[in-house]
Specification:
By secondary structure, this protein is of the alpha+beta class. The chain has helices spanning 21-25, 43-56, 64-75, 141-152, 196-207, 258-271, and strands spanning 5-8, 11-12, 28-36, 39-40, 81-88, 104-111, 121-126, 157-161, 167-170, 174-178, 183-185, 212-214, 227-232, 236-239, 242-244, 250-252. It folds into two domains: 5-111, 2-Layer Sandwich (D-amino Acid Aminotransferase, Chain A, domain 1); 121-271, D-amino Acid Aminotransferase, Chain A, domain 2, CATH 3.20.10. The chain has a six-stranded antiparallel β-sheet. The chain has a five-stranded mixed β-sheet with strand order 9-8-7-15-16. The chain is globular and about 55 Å long.
Length: 276
């Protein structure tokens, strides 16, 4: 397979209506997954988050799970791929949705070559929220702006800092910090996206006996961190080499990445469990 394949409402297509609410108003949600050896990883968790979010937005989810299963079978997943599932409220103009709308379902798959830059720089920037309502919304303006600001200084990822100076999340990832006696990450009550990979890393850390603390992290604390890393479905676990603070100060993390390596190994074992 050398190109993207897309199904819209179960049929091969590449275009949506100009009146689709996902295009007009960002009225929809999406999920991005890694496919390993033809198997979408953590599919159940991604679908649970998607359906819960759609319910929050009062977008009809009846029959969605079975329809998506048929879509995945039709796409015949194989090898290493990127899978994106998007569901919008459907076709209809106006801030209030017309009654009886049928959601638009878009499933696309494309080849994916894993890999991250040899050096990851994270730029902290004052953006008060990346994921409003903690939803993976098709309205991605804030995340895109954060990513653009990071790219201007050749940083791999932009990290949102709220008006109080507390760390939130990345434009496309969750963030963890390794301190002397704890692994810390911002709590979900900070209006950050409940990342599927974030949840798995938390579980793996606890299973490994690592003390985990979901707490507010002020940017001033980062100078004392031993390390930091990003998590997402596509990145998996990626160590941060350098942090550019909101005041322009640069923090380079220690070379000792034993804990990150330990979590990576546990994550890979979960992706590819040993045969019985």
């Amino acid at each position: 397979m050398t190109e993207r394949r897309t199904l819209i409402d179960g049929k091969p297509a590449t275009h949506v209506s100009v009146e689709d609410r996902g295009l007009l108003y960002g009225d929809g949600l999406f999920e991005t997954l890694r496919v390993y050896e033809g198997r979408p990883f953590a599919l159940e968790e991604h679908l649970a988050r998607l359906i819960a979010g759609l319910s929050t937005l009062e977008i009809d989810t009846s029959g969605l799970a079975s329809a998506l299963q048929k879509d995945l079978e039709a796409l015949a997943l194989s090898g290493s791929q990127r899978l994106r599932i998007t569901v919008t409220a459907g076709i209809g103009e106006g801030m209030l949705r017309p009654k009886g709308m049928r959601p638009t379902r878009i499933v696309s798959v494309s080849p994916f070559t894993p890999g991250t830059p040899t050096r990851i720089v994270a730029l902290a920037d004052e953006i008060p929220c990346v994921s409003p309502l903690r939803l993976k919304s098709t309205s991605y303006a804030l995340a895109n702006e954060l990513a653009r600001r990071a790219a201007r200084v050749n940083a791999f990822e932009g990290i949102a800092i709220d008006t109080g100076g507390f760390v939130l999340e990345g434009a496309r990832s969750n963030v963890f910090f390794v301190f002397e006696n704890e692994l810390a990450t911002p709590p979900l009550d900070e209006l950050i996206l409940p990342g599927v990979t974030r949840a798995l890393v938390l579980a793996l850390a606890r299973e490994s006996g690592i003390f985990v603390n979901e707490r507010r992290i002020h940017e001033s604390e980062i100078r004392s961190a031993k390390g930091a890393f990003l998590t997402s479905s596509l990145l998996e676990i990626a160590a941060i080499d350098e942090w550019i603070a909101t005041d322009g100060a640069r923090v380079t993390f220690a070379e000792d990445r034993a804990l990150v390596s330990r979590l990576r190994a546990a994550y890979q074992a979960r992706i590819r469990p040993s045969d019985p």
